[in-house]
TrEMBL record:
Protein's recorded name: Pyridoxal-phosphate dependent enzyme
Record-linked Pfam families: PALP
Domain Tryptophan synthase beta chain-like PALP: 16-304
NCBIfam families noted in UniProt: BHydaspDhtseBhcB
Organism: Brucella anthropi
Presence of keyword Lyase: yes
Cofactor names: pyridoxal 5'-phosphate
């Protein structure tokens, strides 16, 4: 599989511009005081379809030839990538099928359907997801757009940090959540070219810390079905994202379930913005490692806001 280059990010930015928001950067003096650092929250929870994945999905969909697009697109996703691929496919007027765990939040299933996508359910494990998906593609011939192990998707995600460093000068570090590693890979791709002095930290739930263990071991370690409140971060690294993580990430930091929920609650209360648990993991790790970020200017990527309001983790 081809490793995307920075020229692909530049091309993606032009391609997807009509279909995405240039999201705002917000700050909180209260949270800065708690962290002992200046934090700049890149709010992809305000993105089209409610998540950063609209970037990669739009780049993949609008980069297809008419012949490819005619057969539609398909993916497997715990939620946001499926929603965003359905959004992009709807903008292009082509079919989209999403294989989703039956345990995925109902809000995310409804969002896929709301954008015109078709949901096919599977068991909540990587092995079941991939088996059901193979059957879907065999039947439809649809173009597979992987949630993260796809050069088109990674290039699209790289446009987020390209915007961020244009909005905030002199960052010392950027912290982003990591599951499969699409956002972190896009961040690595952009920053290694435009701002190589900026440190890149990946933030992960302690209960789904396969990326952290992979980073320490020097090879991919994949968990099949970890349990964490951060439902968007349950998937393992793949070869493309591992390339970027291995070569460009400074460190992978973890947070407990309680720390993630506390950080999510803090942002809801102090910044008045809706974010999902996966998006709170970066702040949780920053607050847990004050010495690492003390006095620094830190970009924090808030990856999405598609939370099930009937199942808030502090209820």
């Amino acid at each position: 599989m081809q490793i995307p280059e920075f020229s692909d990010v530049v091309a993606a930015e032009a391609r997807i511009q009509p279909y995405i928001h240039r999201t705002p950067v917000l700050t909180s003096s209260f949270i800065n005081g708690l962290a002992g650092a200046e934090l700049f929250f890149k709010c992809e929870n305000f993105q089209k379809a409610g998540a950063f994945k609209a970037r990669g999905a739009s780049n993949a969909v609008f980069g297809l030839s008419d012949e490819q697009a005619g057969k539609g697109v398909a993916t497997h996703s715990s939620g946001n990538h499926g929603t965003c691929l359905s959004y992009a496919a709807g903008r292009r007027g082509i079919p989209c099928t999403v294989v989703m765990p039956r345990t995925a939040p109902q809000a995310k299933k409804d969002a896929v359907k709301g954008y015109g996508g078709r949901v096919v359910e599977c068991e909540p494990s990587t092995s079941s997801r991939e088996a059901v998906f193979a059957q879907v593609v065999a039947e439809s011939g649809a173009e597979f757009v992987h949630p993260y192990n796809d050069p088109r998707v990674i290039a699209g995600q790289g446009t987020c940090s390209k915007e961020l460093i244009g909005q905030v000068e002199n960052l010392d570090a950027v912290v982003a959540p990591i599951g499969g590693g699409g956002m972190v890979s896009g961040t690595c791709l952009t920053l290694s070219n435009l701002a190589p002095g900026v440190k890149i930290y990946a933030a992960e739930p302690k209960q789904a810390d396969d990326a952290c263990r992979s980073f320490k071991a020097g090879h991919i370690i994949a968990d099949d079905a970890p349990e964490t409140v951060a439902d968007g971060l349950k998937v393992p690294l793949k070869e493309l994202t591992w390339h970027f993580v291995r070569n460009h990430v400074t460190d992978i930091l973890t947070a407990s379930e309680g720390e993630i929920v506390d950080a999510m609650k803090l942002i809801w209360k102090r910044m008045k913005i809706v974010m999902e648990p996966s998006s709170a993991v970066p702040l949780a790790t920053i607050l847990k490692n004050p010495d690492l970020f003390a006095g620094k200017r830190v970009g924090v990527i808030v990856t999405g806001g598609n939370v099930d309001l009937e199942k808030l983790p502090w209820n």
